[in-house]
Amino acid sequence: MFEYLLRRLVLLIPVLLGVSLVIFLSIRLVPGDPAEALAGEFADEEYIAEIRRIYGLDQPLHVQYGMFMKRALQGDLGRSILSDTPVLGEVWTRFLNTLQLAFWAVLLATIVGLLAGVLSATNPYSKFDYGSMTGALLGISMPSFWFGLILMGFFSVYLGWLPAGGKGTAAHLIMPVVTLGLTGAGLIARMTRNTMLEITGSEYITTARSKGLASHKVNYVHALKNALLPVITVIGLQSGYLLGGSVITESVFAWPGLGRYIVEAIKLRDYAAVQGSLMFFALTFAVVNLTVDLLYAVFNPRIRYGGSSE
């Protein structure tokens, strides 16, 4: 396990280098000049040139990239061109807000998705099965911004029960969490149902039933445990996606998270903020994927990293 962990950490280095290069070049393809945006509409060329010099925007691309990577390796993501504040502090504050939203959304998606998937698999082709899978399909297919606006119109505008947006109380969390959680729940429910049905037809499940084991023990101890591996993958991908910031949902509900911060930085052509935010997101996603891989060994002892399975 330790050797596998060490190997994965070493492999992160070229991955993050490649991601950093793609991010660096991509943001510079966005039309516009951040120095002109900071200087204002009526600034003269001399003032704009001075801003470029201060932030190193007058240097060749390879020099700018070298400066960016040197600072990043020291834990410095640079300073925002427009707010003149350290990007790392801004990103960390927004990430904590996104982490709060992602935690509750993933928890809701996991509970609802597992429960619906298991009940559908243990009662296949029943009314509940058809109803829950139809609901899961709607949750997957429905655009999050549209669902969020429906919730906002009903619970905020029509009933007046919940605040329409922002952050402050637990009530501000409810609609964005439900918007994100039900989409993830649909994916988890369908994956759980399909995997459970496949496993319940296996020979060892048939043997367990023939030995007289209780139905609930067969379903929830033997079958569910082995069905969790692909479900963990879906949960991990959802977690990584949400921790990077759900751009649309955060924008709809004016949630001050990382995704909304990235969108604002792109619109303002704030190179340092975009580069720092996306690098932080890439690192977070890589850590989540590594955690998911390590969890495989917990739920399936037959998996041996760096060696053969027995």
3D structure, described in words:
The chain is 75% helix and 0% strand. It contains 13 helices and no strands. The chain is flat, with a radius of gyration of 24 Å. It starts with a helix and ends in an 11-residue tail after the last helix.
Features:
flat; 13 helices; 75% helix; 0% strand; MetI-like fold; 310 residues; mainly alpha
Write the layout of secondary structure elements.
Elements: H1 2-27, H2 34-39, H3 45-54, H4 61-73, H5 87-122, H6 127-141, H7 144-158, H8 171-200, H9 203-210, H10 215-243, H11 247-252, H12 258-267, H13 271-299
Helix pairs in contact: 1-13, 5-6, 5-8, 5-10, 5-13, 6-8, 7-8, 8-10, 10-13, 12-13
Helix share, percent: over 70%
CATH architecture of the domain at 87-299: Orthogonal Bundle
Instruction: Tell me the Rg in angstroms.
Output: 24 Å
CATH superfamily annotation of the domain at 87-299: MetI-like
Q: Supply the helix-strand structural class.
A: mainly alpha
Low-confidence stretches: none
Give the H and E element order: HHHHHHHHHHHHH
How far do the termini sit from each other?
15 Å
Q: What is the number of strand segments?
A: 0
